[in-house]
Design a protein that fits this description.
The protein has one domain: Rossmann fold, CATH 3.40.50. Helices cover 34% and strands 21% of the residues. The chain contains 7 helices and 7 strands. Strands 1, 2, 3, 4, 5, 6 and 7 form a 7-stranded mixed beta sheet that branches. The longest helix is centred in the middle third of the chain and has 11 residues. It is globular and about 50 Å long.
């Protein structure tokens, strides 16, 4: 479900509508639909597309003219893209000079045993036998670290520093846990693994 916080963050970073937007990792197309409703022209892509409105294509295989997008949005998606370097290169080719890049990510290197244990506990009985250490190792093995994502984007985009915040509440947990996660982060009892960044496509 698309949260109002995500929509607010994305809209604040985008140019005014109508603008031509590429959404990477669009899933069910909920964000793309909301942006379209706000007057944007959106091309939504996801190799595991869950909606007819989302193109079932990987980022590095997008067949659109160079510099054809005014901005790109990647919400919880770049840590999955393969191959990372080629995908980020294609993203740089697709966004025009001066165009915006809006990224909402997970910093998996900050995901530690405290975060894993809290996640297991909040998921309830279906995860009661979960192993926090194994979960940390599994995620770090399968997700691109934030540093690698930033490095792959750096040739093409000037990125601001990450704004840290909650993220665990988005992982199939009962509703209403964002505020609790924020409190635990503020108390130093959980790491802030969410990372939001806004960048600009470097001029050619």
């Amino acid at each position: 479900m698309l949260s109002s916080a995500v929509m607010t963050f994305v809209r604040a970073a985008l140019p005014a509508a109508p603008a031509h937007i590429l959404e990477v990792g669009a899933g069910s197309g909920e964000l793309a639909g909301a942006l379209t409703g706000a007057g944007y022209e959106v091309v939504a892509i996801d190799p595991a597309a869950q909606s007819p409105s989302v193109r079932a294509v990987s980022l590095h295989e997008v067949d659109e003219p160079r510099a054809s997008f005014d901005a790109a949005v990647a919400v919880v998606s770049l840590h999955h893209v393969e191959p990372l370097a080629e995908s980020c290169r294609r993203l740089g080719e697709l966004v025009r000079g001066g165009g915006a890049l809006v990224v909402d990510e997970c910093d998996v290197e900050r995901f530690d045993q405290r975060a894993a244990q809290w996640l297991i506990e909040q998921r309830g009985p279906r995860e009661e036998s979960g192993d926090a250490q194994a979960l940390v190792a599994d995620l770090r093995e399968h997700l691109h670290p934030l540093g690698a994502i930033r490095e792959a984007l750096d040739e093409w985009f000037s990125l601001g520093e990450p704004v840290r915040g909650p993220y665990l509440y988005r992982w199939e947990l009962p509703p209403g846990l964002r505020e609790l996660e924020e409190e635990l982060i503020a108390d130093g009892r959980l790491p802030a693994i969410g990372a939001r960044m806004v960048g600009m496509r470097r001029e050619a």
